[in-house]
Specification:
single chain, 442 residues, mainly beta, Glutaredoxin, Neuraminidase, five-stranded antiparallel sheet, 31 strands
Length: 442
């Protein structure tokens, strides 16, 4: 859509209509934050009551409605769309309406929402390296990755801050809305899910040089693997490294992929590509926009956002199992066990050993909470956050977040990318309190 808006800037007017699936998405403040986060520069209607949806007989997300200069619908497309056919439709329509003298090319008097002025802009994912006293922050809205100490003092900036796909030194290389992070065992290589470039980047932390190791820069609608630098990807959202395999939550393809670092080969390894929630063998299971990924003891845990679920993937047993979550339209804010529990658009997970077993901490984004999942019992409970959006430190159940997206557990602390607050928060598992880190030094 961005490419079409740019190419036909004098003829095409884009109006977004947001007919929300999740209750949190109906709140105008949350919608404004999403518009800023996604860097949209066209008007967006909050169609909270589905009035526009019903008026245009829409049946699916997304749907494109093509409207002529007189306000008449002349085309409709349901679902994701390849670029070229839509470009051809628009070019043909513009030529036809131009011949009729119907196109008004005067600029539209639009005023974009103001840019946030904080040091961070919609940070999405964090990675704590407690052994080396480092915190990696995907400063997504600024198109860069920050390295700070564990108290938030910036020690290095990776990326120029300008959106783009460019390799090279940290000062001049470019990302585009980066998200997930993974650290190679020796701590010398940082992997970055460069989401809107549809690429995986590697940062040599010794000299700061950034290189592209997977993806072509174009989004694919295919679901086939191949040589990593020759294979197009689709919105890689999060990463976790297991041995020499870099697992990728490929949100745009509704799959998990793996990049073999030594061979440079990337391929889908779990999920058919259908958007759903079915368990079973890796190749037969389905996911719905997997957006968070973590690994512990050979098991992977997935934040499957559109089904508001947490899934467990056991590669050795060739099995995917849902732990919490039931379907695309089953969501809420209910602590409990198994099918009784409900989440709302979960986006981040971090697994640790705890109390003689394992625990998965979950960023329950649209419920503005951090929760704890026991994989053995499938029991999930709220730990931090009142459930009301805001920025407030203090006791766990009284503190407030605003759409936390990423989290990373280090020792007895959970580092949280509190996305809409443009902040990094720390949850202390011993004291049960939440504090805000002051990120400074940029």
């Amino acid at each position: 859509m961005r490419e079409l808006e740019h190419e036909f800037a004098d003829e095409l007017v884009v109006i977004g209509v947001h007919s929300a699936k999740f209750p949190a998405e109906k709140v105008s403040a949350n919608l404004r934050a999403a518009i800023q986060r996604l860097e949209l520069h066209h008007p967006v209607v909050n169609d909270a009551d589905f009035a526009v949806w019903q008026g245009y007989a829409v049946r699916a997300w997304p749907t494109l409605m093509f409207v002529d200069p007189l306000g008449r619908v002349f085309g409709k497309h349901e679902g994701e769309f390849p670029l070229e056919p839509v470009r051809e439709v628009l070019a043909d329509a513009i030529a036809r309406f131009d011949a009729e003298g119907a196109i008004d090319r005067r600029p539209m008097p639009l005023a974009p929402l103001p840019e946030p002025s904080e040091v961070l802009r919609f940070p999405a994912k964090v990675l704590a390296d407690a052994d080396r006293g480092r915190l990696f922050v995907a400063d997504t809205g600024h198109h860069r990755v920050l390295i700070t100490d564990l108290n938030g003092r910036i020690t290095r900036v990776l990326g120029s801050g300008e959106a783009g796909l460019e390799d090279g030194p940290a000062e001049t290389a470019r990302f585009r809305l980066p998200q997930g992070l993974a650290l190679e065992g020796s701590g010398q290589i940082l992997y970055v899910a460069d989401t809107e470039n549809h690429a995986i980047r590697a940062v040599d932390l010794a000299d700061g040089r950034i290189s592209t190791i997977a993806g072509t820069g174009e989004q694919t609608y295919q679901r086939r693997g191949g040589p990593a630098r020759e294979t197009a990807l689709s919105s890689p959202w999060d990463l976790t490294l297991v041995g020499d395999q870099l697992w990728i939550a490929m949100a745009g393809a509704h799959q998990l992929w793996a990049l073999n670092i030594p061979s440079g080969h990337v391929e889908p390894v779990a999920g058919t590509g259908a958007e759903s929630i079915h368990d079973g063998p890796l190749a037969e299971a389905t996911f719905a926009q997997p957006s968070g990924l973590t690994e512990l003891d050979g098991l992977l845990y997935v934040a499957d956002s559109e089904t508001s679920s947490v899934r467990r993937v056991d590669p050795a047993a060739d099995r995917v199992r849902r732990l919490v979550g039931r379907g695309l339209f089953d969501f809420g804010d209910i602590d409990g066990t198994g099918d009784q529990a409900r989440l709302q658009h979960v986006l981040g997970v971090s697994a640790i050993r705890e109390n003689g077993g394992s625990a998965v901490y979950v960023a329950d984004a649209y419920n503005h909470k951090i929760k704890r999942l026991d994989p053995a019992t499938r029991t999930i409970v709220s730990c931090f956050g009142s459930g009301d959006p805001g920025l407030e430190d203090g006791a766990g159940s009284q503190a407030r977040f605003w759409e936390p997206v990423g989290l990373s557990v280090a020792g007895r602390r959970i580092y949280v990318a509190d996305t809409n607050n443009h902040a990094i928060r720390v949850c202390d598992l011993d004291s049960g309190t939440v504090a805000t880190i002051e990120v400074s030094g940029a």
